[in-house]
Amino acid sequence: MKIVGLLLVIVGWLMPVLGLNLTSSNTARLILSLIGIATCLVGILGVLNKAFMKSAVWKQ
Amino acid sequence: MPLRKCLRAFPAATLVLLVLVTIPAWSQSQPPPPSGEKAPAAGAAPTAPSLSAPLPVKDASPPSAGDLAKGDPGGTLTGTVNDVAVSDAKKGLTLGDAVNQIGQNKVAINFVWTLVAGFLVMFMQAGFAIVETGLCRAKNANHTMMMNFMVYGFGLFAYWVCGFALQMGGVGALANLGGTAPLSNEYTINLFGKPFGLFGTHGFFLTQGGTYDVAVMVLFLFQMVFMDTATTIVTGAVAERWKYVAFAISTFFLGAITYPLFANWAWGGGWLSTLGTNYGLGHGYCDFAGSGVVHAVGGLTGLAVALIVGARLGKYNRDGSSNAMPGHDIVIVLTGCFILSFGWFGFNPGSTLGASGNGALRIGSIAVNTMLAGCTGSFGAILYMWIRYGKPDASMSGNGLLAGLVAITAPSGFVNSVGAAIIGAVAGILVCLSVEFLDRVGKIDDPVGAISVHGANGLWGVISVGLFADGKSNYGGSWNGVNGSVTGLFYGDPGQLIAQLIGVATLLGFVFGISFVFNWLVDVFVGQRVSAETELAGLDIPEMGALGYPEFVLKNHRDMAPPGGFGAAVGA
Asked: If you count DSSP H runs as helices and E runs as strands, how many of each does chain B have, helices first?
């Protein structure tokens, strides 16, 4: 799960960066940037955090 | 009859008046040539005086040696033509000497401005130290102070060895500082036919690549204290349970690699700053003083380490509900907030790297924006807490002030005062929402609110440039190599917002990612968290060998009450 979370974070970053060369439309770039940011946040708060929560000290 | 007389006299009076008005005006616009001189032919350019020609010094009426010997209590005799450096004593003062002195004065003003601003930012370390220590429990005071104290040493050393070179080694000549020409080599790759600057390669140990240079030294000092701010943010997010050796390794890596790489991309001529020239996205990623480069980098690294280290013992119950763990000294917390807001006047206005030339006089506007956003940030937070919980919470008011300051750091050079006030107010509310979210939903323990103050509001500050930049700032005619002024979405340029969002994605993806991977490795090989016994006892003795407050004996309130209770003691 930790690796998946990390991959999501990296994919979320690369999405808008690579998107710069896929399209010259500002609207498309804006949408790609927002999706990329959302993917990063899901990776950090949704997946990575959940993975660490499984072994959280307060659950033991 | 008198009326008829008046009507007859009116044209004559008007004529006389016109003549009286026109003749002097005409004579002023056509000055006669002075006697003995020919009027210059129309279209002939005046010849420029030779720079090496001696100047008649006596025309400047310098004070005599006798006058100077009497002293100058009024300050009118000190600083005259006598003080201009002369390159050839035999020839005396020339126009070239005077012009060189003007140039050196400009650079001197900018050196002093940048250095003093850097000294102010350095003093912010004291503010961070006491804010974080005050928000922690007394049993961890020495450990928290020592992290904030040594972050200066570890960070500075790492930055001197390689951080500065990676960050600014290819920035090129900075006009305000009179050059920095030795910082001339950026490692660049070509992707999809566009150059992507990745890191600088001049300036290791401040000597390599000809960087033993006065302007480079000024730039180093200023950039170093910024980097140090980023590293000190992390210590707050994982206070009260971070192993000191892990802190030292993590800080070194942040100062040597993570921070410099992102700072290069934003400020050192790297690929984020060239999104404007390469892809037509506004002026590329714009971060005037570092909401993203400094605060979001620190906040997101803090988040990465906080995930790995986990929550403090006793912070969460088995059902996931959280317990309040109040700090031990709210007085030093708010004092620290004041110190930080004072230091921020070095952070933001100092980022012009000068007070003279290239639009640097905008420092007045930048200082006011900074002040306003801090004010509205604390307003936003205090109102939110007052309405939601019925009390104006002191620590959150302080965090609101800092959140406003963090958020205005990136846009401070590009927005007007109304934009600054709005950005600060949003930040004040955002910090409260973020603290609640991380605590209740994310179960991420952040004793001082560093992730919310610096991470969340750092990102908000970056985005706000793309919204509120008003297109009125002009620092020498261009920014990041794109002519004109930085303009946000609300003032007509959606491309700038996209550049800012790509910066946000990079912060979340690259900065968080690399920090997470490195600190995960530290956790595997060294261990990030202290033992449960150490944590319960307090980190001062086990980790540092001394208590922060050795003469304090922590007692239960009931134990301290006199026989019969407090009421009996005061005769109530």
From this structure: 21, 4
Q: Contact B316/A44, CB-based, under 8 Å?
A: no
ipTM: 0.97
Question: A19 to chain B nearest CA, in Å?
Answer: 10
A 16-45 residues with CB < 8 A to B: 16-17, 20-21, 26, 29-30, 33-34, 36-37, 40-41, 44-45
Chain B: residue whose CA lies nearest to A37: B505
How far apart CA B180 and CA B174 sit, in angstroms, is 6
**Count of alpha carbons within 13 Å of B350, Cβ hemisphere only?**
26
Would you say B140 and B239 are in contact if contact means Cβ atoms under 8 Å apart? Answer: yes
CA closest to B512 among chain A residues: A9
Mutate to test the interface with A, among B318, B501, B528 (most CBs of A within 10 A): B501
Does residue A6 belong to the interface with chain B, where contact is any CB pair within 8 Å? yes
Q: What is the nearest CA distance from B317 to chain A, expressed in angstroms?
A: 6
> Which residues in chain A are contacts of B504 at CB distance < 8 A?
33, 37
Helices (H), B280-412: 297-309, 330-347, 363-389, 394-409
Does the beta-carbon distance from B502 to A9 stay under 8 Å? no
**DSSP-derived secondary structure for B96-121:** HHHHHHHHHHHHHHHHHHHHHHHHHH
Decide if A29 and B513 are in contact by the 8 Å CB cutoff.
Answer: no
Which tokens in the block code for residue B291? Answer: 């909401």
Q: How far is CA B89 from the centre of its chain?
A: 44
Q: Does B123 contact A at CB distance below 8 Å?
A: no
- CB under 8 Å to B489, separation ≥6 — which residues? B466, B467, B496, B497
pLDDT in tens, chain B (572 residues): 454 554 455 555 554 444 444 444 444 444 444 444 444 444 556 677 788 888 887 778 888 888 889 998 888 888 888 889 898 888 889 999 999 999 999 999 999 999 999 999 999 999 999 999 999 999 999 999 999 999 999 999 999 999 999 999 999 888 889 877 899 999 999 988 899 999 999 999 999 888 999 999 999 999 999 999 999 999 999 999 999 999 999 999 999 999 999 999 999 999 999 999 999 999 999 999 999 999 999 999 999 999 999 999 999 999 999 999 999 999 999 999 999 999 999 999 999 999 998 888 999 999 999 999 999 999 999 999 999 999 999 999 999 999 999 999 999 999 999 999 999 999 999 999 999 999 999 999 999 999 999 999 999 999 999 999 999 988 888 899 999 999 999 999 999 999 999 999 999 999 999 999 999 999 999 999 999 999 999 999 999 999 999 887 555 555 555 555 555 444 44
What are phi and psi for residue B482, nearest 5 degrees? -110, 125
Q: What is the pTM of this model?
A: 0.87
Closest-approach residue (CA) in chain B for A21: B192
Tokens encoding B516: 């997470």
Q: Residue A33: list chain B partners with CB under 8 A.
A: 498, 501-502, 504-505
Enclosing H/E stretch for B190: strand B186-191
A13, B508: Cβ pair inside 8 Å?
Answer: yes
